[in-house]
Amino acid sequence: MAELQRLIPGARRALFARYHIGGCQSCGFADDETLAAVCGRYGDLPVGEVVAHLEESAAHDRAIQLDPADLKAKLDGGADLRLLDIRSREEFDAVHIDGSELLTTELQQQAFGTWPPETEVVIVDHDGGRAIDAAAFFIGHGLGATRALTGGIDAYARDADPSLPRYQVELEPG
Question: Which of 21, 54, 95, 123 has the most C-beta neighbours closer than 10 Å?
Answer without folding.
Answer: 123
